Automatic annotation (TrEMBL), chain A:
It comes from Streptomyces castrisilvae. Keywords: Cell membrane, Membrane, Transmembrane, Transmembrane helix. Its main location: membrane. The chain crosses the membrane at residues 26-44, 56-75, 95-118, 130-149, 169-190, 219-238, 250-269. This is ABC transporter permease. It is a multi-pass membrane protein. Pfam families: BPD_transp_2.
From TrEMBL, chain B:
Signal peptide: none annotated. Keywords: Cell membrane, Membrane, Transmembrane, Transmembrane helix. It comes from the Bacteria. The keyword NADP does not apply. This is ABC transporter permease. The keyword Transmembrane helix applies. The chain crosses the membrane at residues 48-67, 73-94, 101-120, 126-145, 152-170, 196-214, 270-294, 326-346. InterPro entries: ABC_transp_permease. PANTHER family: ABC TRANSPORTER PERMEASE PROTEIN YPHD-RELATED-RELATED, INNER MEMBRANE ABC TRANSPORTER PERMEASE PROTEIN YJFF.
Length: 324, 352
């Protein structure tokens, strides 16, 4: 996926006309603010605690998956298998809940780590393109999940697991709290740790990073494993909220939602920079936009077309910066 | 079957008559052997899928008597023809180094548009999806080639947009348009020559035309050159942007046409089709030996890739006792094996 490194001459005057740096940096937050302001003025029952809480609960799994996706995209990769990983984690839960909650959670998270390890190995050791490497588990992972679950939807009755999905702490739903803490942790990882710097360096220029002596393969495998674990966690939380393990439909199109959140949040697709807060804002923007349109009785089709337009606009604004 | 990838920019294939390749050194025994090895690797990479496909078909015919019946062959090939038409466009896009994620939605949209327009006759039913889906392809091409945006994200957006458009014209998926029973358009999907349905013939004709286009026209050579190195192609004065726009437009047109054919076959515009089809198409292209980095690939490989995926699906249905979810496990496994093998075969041919 090369993009035209040679920017067309026609685009340059346009670039001078706008104030790119500011929009690139704060555009997504501005957009979230505009949507919220619009709703405060024109939408009844939108800016209520209840509704905002619902929106946050709905966006939480997307945020968790998108955090891992942001790391992967930061290495100039992409992970198409996250939806299947969610399904796989969901399928494993009922199998191991008999041994208790902790073993079930551990097995589900391990499955995510394993999927990530396979992806990371294919990308870093075999040298496959990330799309192809993760496509195999996108296709196979859901099949595996269905095989394990006998293609059946299973009710979850374990109260501890269910409380993960429905419980709250100080009025904040646990799901939202977990997503928030993870966002903080990933932001810390990216900006304050050696690992984070290595991830960004590898995404910026892989061969330079290798020449500089960075452990490229280990970092790549680590990043895909993190992405897999986060996806599995999102699968667990979504299952707890649904009160059922549904491997056939859980997480479908999640890869696209997550990639959208990351890209709208300003992380360039060709790596070298990761914006964690932007990713959270990107996921929120898509969620709020959809909710707003639906509250105004605009159908789903309009919401999808609007989302498409937002993606194009976001990438267009971020375009200049991406051509290093 | 002479579908070499010219890759005129990256690595000129060694001329047959000159043994001295690789920097003009004299041909030693070792060099000749490695050259032969490279030829075999190239051949395997290009036609290995065909070998796998034939092996699977032959073995399956012995084990499952119901597999090698003519009826079953017809069923498999008709099913394969729709994906094949979509994958044809995808192959060209991928050879330019791009990707088209929107084809699944465009396929579904094409089907719905065709079924909706079929009430006015054959031509509207065929042309409406072609015009709309071609326009979506053109939009993809414009945003990729002229605005310089990443193909992955542009076509991701049109994936959403096309599905939105589809929902809008079907009252949020509530309305299913039916093709009138006796219309000529329904005949296009259901009719057959010697038992082979029109969709198969259309797909074969398109693959023939696509092969000629890629191998025998300057447009085709430009497609390879653009994928080999976009910058080098620009420096050579090739119309890079125009080529990309045309390729994405073709991909949209073909996806729309496949949708229309499918609607004709089903006699209705089913709204829930095509989800995940882009990934099936990409899988088929990749299994068929086209490199995702662009610049090399073959149309025939894609055809075998599509057939292999369909045969796997059909076999798992034949086995019956096997859970149908194994189909995706096997397909995913095949994909890994093929791309890993390709990676090692391609090593030395192209260095990324």
């Amino acid at each position: 996926m090369t993009q035209a490194a040679v920017s067309t001459p026609a685009a340059r005057p346009l670039a001078r006309l706008r104030d790119p740096a500011w929009y690139q940096e704060y555009g997504v937050y501005l957009a979230v603010a505009v949507v919220l302001l619009f709703n405060a003025l024109f939408t009844e029952h939108f800016m209520t605690v209840d509704n905002l809480r619902t929106q946050l609960v709905q966006v939480a799994p997307i945020v968790i998956v998108a955090l891992g996706m942001a790391l992967v995209i930061g290495t100039e990769g992409v992970d198409l298998s996250v939806g299947s990983t969610m399904a796989l984690a969901a399928a494993l839960l009922p199998l191991y809940l008999g041994y208790g909650l902790v073993p079930a959670l551990v097995m589900a998270l391990l499955a995510g780590a394993l999927v990530g390890a396979v992806n990371g190995t294919l990308v870093s050791l075999v040298g496959l393109q990330p799309i192809v490497a993760t496509l195999a588990l996108f296709v196979g992972g859901r099949g595996l999940a269905l095989v394990m679950a006998d293609s059946q939807l299973k009710q979850i009755v374990n109260p501890d697991l269910l409380s993960l999905g429905t419980g709250s702490f100080l009025g904040i739903p646990l799901v939202v709290l977990i997503a928030g803490v993870l966002a903080g942790a990933v932001a810390f990882l990216v900006t304050r740790t050696t690992f984070g710097r290595q991830v960004v360096a590898i995404g910026g220029n892989r061969s330079a990073a290798a020449l500089a002596g960075l452990p490229v393969r280990r970092v790549l495998i680590g990043v895909y494993m993190l992405c897999g674990v986060l996806a599995a966690l999102a699968g667990i939380l979504a299952t707890a909220r649904l009160t059922a393990s549904d491997p056939s439909s859980l997480g479908t199109l999640m890869e696209l939602s997550a990639i959208t959140a990351v890209v709208v949040g300003g992380t360039p697709l060709n790596g070298g920079s990761i914006r964690v807060l932007g990713t959270v804002a990107g996921a929120l923007l898509m969620q709020l936009l959809r909710a707003t349109l639906i509250k105004h009785d605009l159908p789903d089709s309009t919401a999808q077309i609007a989302q498409a337009a937002i993606i194009i606009a976001a990438v267009y604004v971020a375009r200049e910066r991406r051509s290093r | 079957m002479n579908e070499t990838s010219p890759a005129p920019v990256a690595s000129a294939p060694a001329p047959r008559k000159t043994p001295a390749t690789g920097g003009g050194k004299p041909a030693t025994k070792a060099a000749t052997r490695s050259l032969t090895g490279r030829r075999i690797a190239e051949l395997l990479q290009r036609q290995g899928v065909l070998v796998v496909l034939l092996t699977v078909v032959i073995v399956a015919s012995f084990i499952y008597p119901s597999f090698h019946t003519l009826d079953n062959a017809r069923g498999v090939t008709v099913q394969a023809s729709f994906l094949a038409v979509v994958a044809l466009g995808m192959t060209m896009v991928i050879i330019t180094g791009g990707i088209d994620l929107s084809v699944g939605s465009v396929f579904a949209l094409g089907g719905v548009l065709a079924a909706w327009a079929s009430q006015w006759g054959f031509l509207p039913a065929l042309l409406t999806p072609l015009v709309v889906c071609g326009a979506i392809g053109l939009l993809n091409g414009f945003l990729v080639a002229r605005a310089g945006m990443a193909p992955f994200i542009v076509t991701l957006a049109t994936l959403l947009g096309a599905r939105g458009l589809l929902l809008a014209i079907t009252d949020e998926g509530a309305t299913t348009y039916l093709v009138p029973k006796d219309s000529a358009f329904a005949e296009l999907g259901q009719g057959s020559v010697w038992g082979f349905g029109y969709p198969i013939l259309v797909a074969l004709a398109l693959f023939g035309a696509g092969g000629l286009l890629l191998q025998r026209t300057s447009f085709g050579q430009t497609i390879f050159a653009v994928g080999g190195s976009s910058d080098a192609a620009t420096l050579m004065g090739l119309p890079v942007a125009r080529t990309k726009m045309l390729v994405y437009t073709l991909s949209g047109l073909l996806a729309g046409l496949a949708g229309a054919l499918n609607a004709a076959r089903l006699s209705s515009g089913v709204t829930i089709l095509g989800v995940g089809m882009e990934l099936d198409a990409i899988s088929a292209v990749v299994i068929g030996g086209t490199l995702l980095i662009g610049g090399a690939g073959s149309i025939s490989g894609t055809l075998w890739g599509v057939l292999l995926l369909q045969v796997i699906q059909n076999l798992i249905n034949q086995i019956g006792t096997l859970n149908s979810s194994y189909q995706s496990v096997v397909s995913g496994g095949f994909l890994i094996v093929v791309v890993v093998a390709q990676r090692y075969l391609a090593r030395g041919r192209r260095t990324t």
